[in-house]
Amino acid sequence: MTLLVEVMERPLDPGYAEAAARRQAAQAAGRRSGHSKAGAVLIAVVAVVLGLLTTAAAQQLRAPQESVADARALLEEEIADRSAQAAALQEHAVALSAQIEELQQTTLASQDPEVLDELRLDGVVTGAIPVTGPGLVVTLTDGGGLSSDEVSSDARVRDVDIQTVVNALWASGAEAISVDDQRLTALSAIRNAGDAVLVDLVPLPGPTYVIRAIGDPQAMQAAYARSEAPSYLQLLGSGFGIQSSAQTEDDLDLPGVGVQRPQYARALTDGDDAASAPSSILEPDDGPTGASHSTSSSTRTLEGRS
Fold first, then answer.
1. pLDDT of 292 higher than 60
2. Which of 48, 190, 256, 265 has a CA positioned 20 to 30 A from the CA of residue 182?
3. Contact at 8 Å (CB) between 137 and 246?
C-alpha cells in the first residue's frame, strides 16, 4: 500500500523533478539577462545622443554672432586709428613748438636778448620746453611687485599716492616735475580710471611709477624728508606692500609739453585795472612754482584706499 500511495502522489522521480526545476530556472535567467542587455544598450544610445545634442547647443551658444564680431573688430580698428592720429598730432605739435622756439631764438638773440631769457624762463615754469639738471627721483611700485599678474586693487599705486608725492616735491622746491616722462604743468591732472593711473588723460603703464623732480638735490631731499610724504609711503608699504624709494640724481632730463593755451586766463594790458579785473583775468606769476602746481584738489586718507 505504501508503494502504491507514493506512486500515486509522486509519479516522477525526485531527480527528474529537480532537473526540470533547474532547466526552468536557467531559461528564466536567460530571458532576464537578454532584457537587461537590451536595456543597457538603449540607455547608452540615449546618453550618446543627449551628449551630442548638448555639445552642439553649447558650441552654438558660445560661438559669437557674426554681427557682434564685426562690430567689435570695427571698434578696435577705430580705437587704433584714433590713437595713432593722436600720437601723430602730438609729435607734430612738439615739432612745431621746436620750430617756434628756434625762430624766437634766432630773431631775439640779436634784437632783444632779455626777452629771450624771459621766454626761456617762462618755458621752464610752464613746462613748455624740455629741461635738464640735478634733482630727486621717487619711485612707487605696486604691492605685487614686477612679476605678479594678479595684484589686489588695494595694493596698486593710485592717483592720490602720486599726488601726495608730487605736492611734497613742489613744496620742497622742485622747479620741474615729470611722472613717467609726462611733464606736469599748472593744468596737469593726475587721476584714476579704474586701476589705471592717468596723467593728463595719458595712461601710465606701471607697475612702477617714476617721479622725477629737478631742483637743488640736497635742499629738496631735506625738505622732502620733513614732509608728510615719507610717512605716508611708509604706511602704504606696511599696509598694502607698496614699495617706494627716493634718491638724488646728478643729471635728469624732463620733456616739454609744448606751448599750452590758457582757457580762462589772459595777461593784463595797460587798459585793465588789476583791482577791478574779473576773477577770470589772472596776473602772471613770476615767483616760485611750488603751490601753483598742486595737482590734488581733494585729500585722500589711507582708509579711503580700501
1. no
2. 265
3. yes
